[in-house]
Amino acid sequence: ARAHTGRDSYIMVEGGYHGLCGAFQWGVEDLEEDGGGMVRPYGEGVPQLLRQLFHLVPLNDGDRLESVLQQHGDEIGALLIEPILGNCCSIEAGHQYMSDVRELCNRYGVVMIVDEVKTGFRVARGGVQELIGIQADVCTFAKALANGYPISAIGGREDIMRRIGHGVMHGGTYTAHSVSLAAAEKTLEILEETDALERVADYGKRLQEGFAAILSRRGIAHCFTGHPAMFGLMFAEKAPQNYREWVTSDYSFYNSLAPRLHERGILCEPDSREPWFISAAHDDECLARTLEAFEGAVDETIRSLRRGRGKTRSEAVPPKPGRTKLEGGESSLPPPAALPA
Predict the structure, then answer these.
(1) 20 to 30 A Cα–Cα from 229, which one of 127, 163, 259, 278?
(2) d(CA 14, CA 99)
(3) Domain containing 146: what range?
(4) CA separation (Å) from 194 to 33, 45, 82, 142, 184?
(5) Position 34 in a domain
(6) Nearest-angstrom CA–CA distance, 297 and 236
(7) What CATH code is carried by the domain that includes residue 294?
(8) 293 has pLDDT over 60
(9) By three-state DSSP, how is residue 134 classified?
(10) How far apart are CA 253 and CA 33, in angstroms?
(11) What is the pLDDT of residue 317?
């Protein structure tokens, strides 16, 4: 993108994750009500010099993005975005927002980079771009591309991709590794010729329905975010629209629930930011076992929180990169609407 535009700066979306690279290991802490906050690296050894190269904007806020581009558009070469935040509850970008992002990138000559490392070949054969109806200038893939074998790939507009090998250097020790390429070829064949993705989505929907029935019977507020193949579970009436809304929410019920699910053999991510990923290997037996374990874990969590023995966020989950602590934000109880009387 820099070679194509001749510009060094870039934009990232708050809550997005693009790998452990110094250029991307930044997040907003000490959030302020007016939308401000302190931008810091979430790892040691990241040069502060990099801070002057990028701008952070909230998801689903087209006005904020346009304002940044109005002020700095002649310096910005790329925008990096996960339309479904793979490291933040699978919070989704709205279709109109993504349409606005596409138009703004066109207007200011910014390369739109869509990170499909988690969504690619998982939420649809054409990834999240197919679901939303937008086309990136550059996009990245990994994970589901080879069904777990180590691989990553980049694609994009021909005029941009042709720069590789003609001024832009690319390569590595394991580039084009034969085993990973064989796995990717077979995976893509299966995805194209079978209903694997449809079965994954159907299982995810049925799992959500089972969770919802269990929680509703107990009067526990809840909602789901993202796609059924990789969804987030929130113990709130309304789903967050961006990272700031998630981090200011009370997610302690989830963090108390997760260890109890582990004890019952359900290996969900202990951090509520991570989605529930569905596999084509999950079948009706898995669904029944998961729902039975979920029901027992929910009941135990309720009993524990009523006794005041629930684990707090900090006790249940060690801080992950970019986690933000807010004044008065730690709690051992879910919001009143989430916990039945």
Answers:
(1) 259
(2) 18
(3) 2-192
(4) 48, 46, 27, 20, 15
(5) yes
(6) 18
(7) 3.90.1150.10
(8) yes
(9) coil
(10) 24
(11) 42
